[in-house]
Structure formats: structure tokens, C-alpha cells
Amino acid sequence: MSTFWIVLTGALVASACSIVGCFLVLRKMAMIGDAISHAVLPGIVIAFLIGGSRDSLLMLLGAAAIGLLAVFLIQWFHQSGVPSDASIGVVFTALFAAGVVLVSMYTRDIDLDLDCVLYGEIAYVPWNTLQIAGVDIGPKAVWGVGLALLLSVVLIAAFYKQFKICSFDPAMAAAVGIPVALFHYLLMGLVSVSTVASFESVGAILVVGMLVVPPATAYLLTEKLGRMIVYSVLIGCASSVIGYFAASMLDASIAGSMISIAGGIFLIALLFSPSHGVVLRKIKQKQMVRQASIAE
Amino acid sequence: MHKSPLSIHGLSVAYQKKPVLRDITFEVPEGNLIGIVGPNGAGKSTLIKAALGLIPRLHGEVTIYGKPYAKQRKLVGYVPQRESVDWDFPTNALDVVMMGRYGHLGWIKRPGSAEKKLALECLAKVGMADYAGRQISQLSGGQQQRIFLARALAQDATLYVMDEPFVGVDAATEKAIITLLNELKTQGKTVLVVHHDLATVKEYFDWVMLLNVRLVAFGPTEPTFTAQKLQETYGGRLTMLDRESPSALIVNGRSSDVDGSIHLA
């Protein structure tokens, strides 16, 4: 049973992250996910200090709020003339450091440390279960990530055309009256929620990896946005399943194996994709050269 | 009372304290093809973006047919600069043209068969019917520009605002675009075009606006587009091959303006 829960959690994280990740990759903001996953630390600590436990919804909301604050600060610094990569770097390291200070100030008295906040371990997912009226309803992580995934799916399905045009041509979107800033922050809010819901239980490496690698792979395989999202979910889920069994065979880190598999799939797509693949392009070029020489 | 398609009063715009546009006032006459020319950094694109509320303005009032832009969005079709978007975005030509309908669809409604039909018609009008399913990165610069134009047509507007539609396009596309613009004019629509090629101004436009941070001149092309006013606009930086003949200046204007620089006198 624990195998089932771990694979399911991995697949849910992969789906939640890769859906929002597609839009990040297309907006050339892939590293925003990395930034958010670190910047939320002070939010988690503050929410923990207010709520007093690690289970609360409050923690998720606190983290999501700080995630949005980080995005807002990055945007603001960039608009004030700081290059965008530098503003991402400044904001997330500063917020993360503030979180580290907070944790170190209070860890003496309470049960919260950096390991369990940032480097959650997917192998422990099946034992951290949720109980309603004494009935065990499955791992907490499955419910948390599942709800985050549901939220993303519902919002992106409802406002698909807005998310699409805001990613492709924000000037045009603004000109026809679509509130571009609202959808920007809505997307960033979804990234925050998906990231936070995922990483406490499965670890930051899995989250950041799933935000970027499956979408980047899908980008190489299709030329339609809708398909890119579906492919990246499938690639993410496949990486989770294969990664889990690879990890149990090798007796290695589960999250690490999942992302390594995703990286491997990316490499295969980069080399052999029918449309963008390096190998096929070379073969086509050779054929063209040969045809040209025959024609002469 | 008859309302002007676009009326701007006392418009000023600044980027980080540096004024880009200063105290611009004009009223666009309906049913004309209007060219906006001026040197690099004159604020041509900024004028358009400020008029459409895409960038904040310091002062000034903008009205579209007598009302603020926010209430008149559906009457305006906007064609941004081609380089402003990522042409590697995973989508095809038809899909981009359908985006022209998004503003009309409102919050929830999805583009359906009616939108698809209209988009195909618009693609046909720009001579791109055969490319509907083509991935946009596989189109040439001229074809991409036509897609943008088709998208503006799909907006079914009465005032069109275009930012440098002739940049980097082939001769056939340039001809197709200007034919289309004239067709829009005969339908009584108003078209504002940011233009970089001084050589074709007289041939293409009924009215011309000379802009360099301030509004230098605005009026019917024949009396407005003169050597003297151009010198005023370009700050004496145009080389005059023959001071008596404006065409000599224009020939030079084309050769130098293609790479975006102006010969220093």
C-alpha cells in the first residue's frame, strides 16, 4: 500500500507542478518556481508561530502569501531598473535568509527545523496520514497536493484563453481589456500554492524539477499549447512511476530518481524529437545536401 | 454631434523622469490613413501605447469616439510590433488570429466555430488561407506580420492602430498590407500607422503626423510633409541631396532609415 501512496503523491506533484510550469517556461520565468520555493520559508515559519502546528491550512496560506509578495517584489525591482535575473536572486535569497534567521531563533522551543520544511522526504508520505472522525483517509500530502492540483486545473480550464493570450502577447491582451496583472498574479498564486503544498511533503528538488523539466520536454515535442500541457503531465507522471521503481531497485533517493528520469526523458526528446530533435535535424540537413549535390 | 475616432489633449508621458512625449494635442479625422513618422526615440510607439492605456501617462486626456478608451475597446484594433512577441510560442496561425476575438468573448466564453470561421475569413483577406494550421515559428517575417494584421481584422474594429507593420517584411507583403489598409479606408475606417520609411509616406498616407517628443506637425500629407518640416522633426540631421526637391531628401531618407539611423548632416 505504501508503494501506491508514494507513486500517487509523486504523480500528483508532477501534475500540479507541470501544469503551471508550462506557463512559466513559455514566459521564460522558469526560475520563478525555484525562487518561490525558497522565498516562502519565512511565511511558513510565521504561520507556524501563529498557528502552533505544522498541519494547518494557515501554513499553506502564509506560504502562499509570502510567495506572492516575493513575486510582487521581483516585479517591482525589475520595473525600477534592476535586471530581472538579479531581482529574482536578491528577493529569494533575502527572504530565504530571513526565514533561516526566524527558524534558528525559535527552533530551540518548537518542533520545526529546516530539514522538515525544505527537504521533506517522499518516502515518509504514507505514514503521515489525515484522519477525519477517527477514520484514516490517506496521506496528508495526497490531499494537500491533490487540492492544489484541482485548484490549478479548475482555474486554468476556466480562464484558458486569458492565460494563453497573456503568455503570448500581453500588450494585445491588455489592449482588448483582459486584466493582465490579475492573471499574472493568479498564475503566480497557483505556482505558490502548488509549490508549497508539494515541497513540505516531497522536498524542494522534486518540486523545482517538476516545475521545469516536464514542461521543457513537452515544449520540444509539440506545437500546440493544449498538447504541451497534456504531454508535460504525462511525462511528469511517467517520471514519478519509473523513478520510484528505479529508486527501490537501486535503494536510492526516490525524489532524486524521479527527477533524474525526467532529465533522461528530456535528453531523449532533445535528441530525437520529430520537430525539434537535434539528430533528426542533422539527418535532414545531410539529406538536403545530398539531394542538392545529386541535382547538380 | 460627430466624434473624432481618436482625440488626445495635453498628453505627456515619461519613462523614469525623462520625458518621452510632451504636451501632445491632436484630433484624428475619421476615414483616413494616417502615418506617424519621426526619428528613433521620438515617442511614436509610446504615443500609441499611451493612447491605448498600455503605459501610464503623466498628464492628458484620451478619448475614442468621445469616450474613454476603457469603454470603447471593441472599436479599436491594435497591431503591436512584430518583435514584441515570442514567435516560438506553441500555437498555429489560425489560433493567433482567433485571439482577435478574445476581447469580444468576455470572461468565460470560449472561442468556437463562429470565431474559427471568422478567423479563416480574415486569414484569406491577408492571403494566408493556406497557412492556417502552420506553426507560427515556421512563417517568414512578412507572413507573421500578415497574421498580426488578420488578428486585428478579426477584432472587427473601426479604428486601427498599427505599430511599424512594414518593418522587416518583403515587397509582396508590403503591397498586400497597403492594399488592405486602403480597403479599410474605403469602408470608412480610420487607420493610424507608425511608419519608418519616409520614401513611401506620400504614396501611402492621406494625413501625416511628424513627431519628435513634441508634435511638430499634423495635417493632410501634401502641405504637411515638406522638407522644412521634416528638418524640424529630425533636428537637421537629414542629408539633403537637393534642397529644392523633396524627393531627393526622400531617397536619402529611405536608404538611411532602413538600418534605423539617420545620416548626420
From TrEMBL, chain A:
Entries under InterPro entries matching the protein: ABC_BtuC-like (IPR037294), ABC_TroCD (IPR001626)
Keywords: Cell membrane, Membrane, Transmembrane, Transmembrane helix, Transport
Source organism (scientific name): Paenibacillus cookii
Entry's localization field: Cell membrane
Pfam families: ABC-3
Record-linked CDD domains: TM_ABC_iron-siderophores_like
Tagged with keyword RNA-binding: no
Family membership: Belongs to the ABC-3 integral membrane protein family.
Protein name, UniProt field: Manganese transport system membrane protein MntD
Topological category with respect to the lipid bilayer: Multi-pass membrane protein
